[in-house]
Amino acid sequence: MLTQAPKGTQDLLPQASHRWQRIEKSMRDVCALAGYREIRTPVFEHTELFQRGVGDTTDVVQKEMYTFNDKGNRSITLKPEGTAGAVRAFIEAHLYADTLPCKLYYVSCPCFRYEKPQSGRLRQFHQNGIEVFGAKDASVDAEIIALALKVLAANGIDGLRLNINSIGCPTCRKAYLEKLKDYLAPKLPGLCKTCQERFERNPMRILDCKEDADKLVDAPAMLDNLCEDCAGHFEKLKTYLQALGIEYAVDARIVRGLDYYTKTVFEIITDTPEGVPLTVCGGGRYDGLVEELGGPATPGIGWGMGIERMIMVQDMRGIGEEAPAPLDALVVTLGDEARAEGVKLVNALRERGVRADLDHAARSMKAQFKYANKLGVKKVVVIAGDELERGVVKLRDMEKSEETEVPMDEIASRF
Question: Is residue 24 a contact partner of residue 107, using CB atoms and an 8 Å limit?
Fold first, then answer.
């Protein structure tokens, strides 16, 4: 067990890290152009934050959280998602007193959920995410959707489908839930066990059940029961998406799995080779969450995008790029005196921004060239006895198999 990672986790090895770095860079670049700033919150929070924020009726809180008591007997939970921690930080740091809207993003945020590990679903996973506080107009809903599509496109993931819905606000949802429960009650004995458990605590989630979907095709839709404000907001969202040239479909079955959502909810979906829909980004509004967690009434909206899932989609489409060579140059030496000069040269090259190294294993010259080939290094600098006496080095182009002599004091500037 000492040499095996815990179930549902995986290592990020050097040969794959460049793919994560590209995804992280694209997230930072896209967000910076829209005025978003990075936030980083702790890996664990007080359990009550998720019970109140995510919702103690959700599957996440009831079944999937990693919760434990610390040495002070405080209940602590590894965060299962990024929004609640960002809201807590927004309140604690009094960011609501600064200029609003407050536009935040996070990169490679580690999240933890105890569930059966499967393709695209791990117990420790990482999310890129966006959170915006203090913007009530549907224009920001359209903006964050556009940003999600740009991040995905920057990583070669296109051909996506955007599905949107509105799940209303507490005012119009209360009457709708009564109507929905009246519809579901006679069907309840024929529904799956999970749906039966959700009937009292979270009936809208029943509409999201894949097992019973065919039995609920004529269920009342929240869209038909929106109040005037929620209906107007949803129409504005559609108008803004059309203005941006973003195609969408209205899917009345999208409810999302967390209790804090209000009004807009959306999913961005791709298809697997087996034809199974796969959600690569999901999010929506949470206009009541800041107030629920002790802050002033502040509208909010955000999304999360799993990095492991993005990479899985890249692999499906064959667009994962090869790892670049780790070095621009390798210094090959022969003899102790040459090695001392090599150490100096490597340092000089690095100071000029050249990724350089030498063979610290003190292998033969032939073995050093083999090492350079394995690394994929394009330039090799050779320092040996004869050249050392004449104050020159050999610069070998590994791709062209060409070699030239260069004065020792000029080699750094050549790069």
Answer: yes
Topology annotation, domain 329-414: Rossmann fold (3.40.50)
Using CA atoms, how far apart are residues 100 and 117, in angstroms rounded to an integer?
40
Distance from C-alpha of 263 to C-alpha of 169, rounded to nearest angstrom: 6
**Burial class (CB within 10 angstroms; exposed 0-12, middle 13-18, buried 19+) of 92:** exposed
Phi, psi (degrees; rounded to nearest 5) at 4: -135, 125
Q: What is the tens place of the pLDDT at every residue in 359-369?
A: 999 899 999 99
H helical segments located in 328-410: 336-351, 365-375, 385-390
Cα(329)–Cα(326) distance, integer angstroms: 9
Residue with tokens 């610390």: 70
Q: Give the span between the Cα atoms of 155 and 79, in whole angstroms.
A: 26
- The CATH number corresponding to 14-169+227-317 among 3.30.930.10, 1.10.10.10, 2.70.98.10, 3.20.20.105 equals 3.30.930.10
Q: Determine phi and psi for 45, rounding to 5 degrees.
A: -135, 170
Q: Which pTM does this prediction carry? A: 0.90
